[in-house]
Amino acid sequence: MRFLHTADWHIGKKLHGFDLLEDQKAAFDQILQIAKTEKVDAIVIAGDLYDRSVPAVEAIELFNQMVIEMNLQEKLPILAISGNHDSSTRLETGGPWFVQSDFYLHTRLEQAFQPIEMGDTQFFLLPYFEPISARLYFENEEIRTIEQAMKEVVKEMTMHFDPEKAHVLVSHFFVAGSEKTDSETKLMVGGLDTVPLATLDAFDYVALGHLHGKNALQSETARYSGSPLKFSLSELNQTKGVWLVDIDVQKLALEFKEIQPVRDIIQIKGSFKELISPEFYETIQKDDYLHVQLTDRAVIPNMMNQLRQVYPRIIGVERLYGREDQTAKKTTKAGLKKLAPNQLVEQFFSEVTGEEPTGQQQKWIKEQLAEIHQSERGK
């Protein structure tokens, strides 16, 4: 059996306000090409198909297009589960007739105990669930954590093992020993979502989703595929792609297939003067998503607007050495008392943003303060 292991597509996700649908479609096209080139028997998607429980219409349209290409046009079986970002209720709509084209989408705990058999392999598709689901399913009030639940889940799964076949678990949890990045939502209170790696030893391979780096877990038989795209600055140095998995009852072989983003996340560093000079910015792929490390200490008027004229996809600016206003001394407490309300707001704005408010912003400040003053007088 040969299949691709991918996860955490997060269709519809935005990166600091930037729409990623085009980037996500480009990544998917590469995944599909890998699947065709490597002649895989199936594609496994280990959760978080969407970024939100109620995805935007455009996100749904894109995912539908992806499924059509994979499943209906290329005739590739899909083995997928819902993740913690998905709405299991909404996602399962259509599930009963999806299976007619070998699209298996499991969103409820009870479905996990019905193995999908392909060739010499059994797939157990375990969607993300909360402890209460296991408590109700097993009618066991002592189940309070995912760790307790997983022991019962795996025990029941093994009862359905065919000893003549390999056994693959597809799941979406935080496995003990894994490392997280900033873009992963932490749903954890006192270790609620942690699954000990030893709990999964019964399986020949565990295809995991939830963490966005392929190296988040170091195990011979359990891997995170990571997300197809970088979703935060903490993923700056990660290599994105999918696992190509060859498995049978006697062996397991893994190969990571890299995906190249159409727009990368990169970090640049320099003074404001350096960053806006042609000698510097002509060496930068300006269409990438940029995190700027600014070395200036002085306040730079209209800094962000000037930077965005050169670098349109800035996702953040970090001042490395603090900020000092070279044109004015720090206002004393006595001096603050002499400032008008609009002057106080404008000074606060400058200290927080490092920029002077524009004429329009000053107008808005005065208008809002006037409204507040009027409402206070009317009380």
Polypeptide structure, described:
The chain has 379 residues and is α/β, with parallel strands linked by helices. It has 3 domains: 2-258, 4-Layer Sandwich (Purple Acid Phosphatase, chain A, domain 2), CATH 3.60.21.10; 263-327, no CATH class; 333-379, no CATH class. It has 12 helices and 18 strands. Strands 6-5-4-1-14-15 form a 6-stranded mixed beta sheet, with helices on one face. α1 (21-37) packs parallel to α2 (57-73). The longest helix has 20 residues, at 359-378. The protein is elongated and about 80 Å long. Residues 185-192 and 324-329 have low confidence and may be disordered.
Summed over residues and divided by their number, the pLDDT gives a mean of: 89
CATH homolog superfamily of the largest domain:
Metallo-dependent phosphatases
Distance between the termini: 75 Å
Strand arrangement in the largest pleated sheet: 6-5-4-1-14-15
- Kindly name the structural category: alpha/beta
Coarse morphology: elongated
How does CATH name the architecture of the largest domain?
A: 4-Layer Sandwich
Domain Nuclease SbcCD subunit D C-terminal: 262-352
Pfam families: Metallophos (PF00149), SbcD_C (PF12320)
Subunit structure: Heterodimer of SbcC and SbcD.
GO molecular function: 3'-5' exonuclease activity; endonuclease activity
Key terms:
alpha/beta, 12 helices, 18 strands, Purple Acid Phosphatase, chain A, domain 2, elongated, five-stranded mixed β-sheet, 379 residues, six-stranded mixed β-sheet, 3 domains
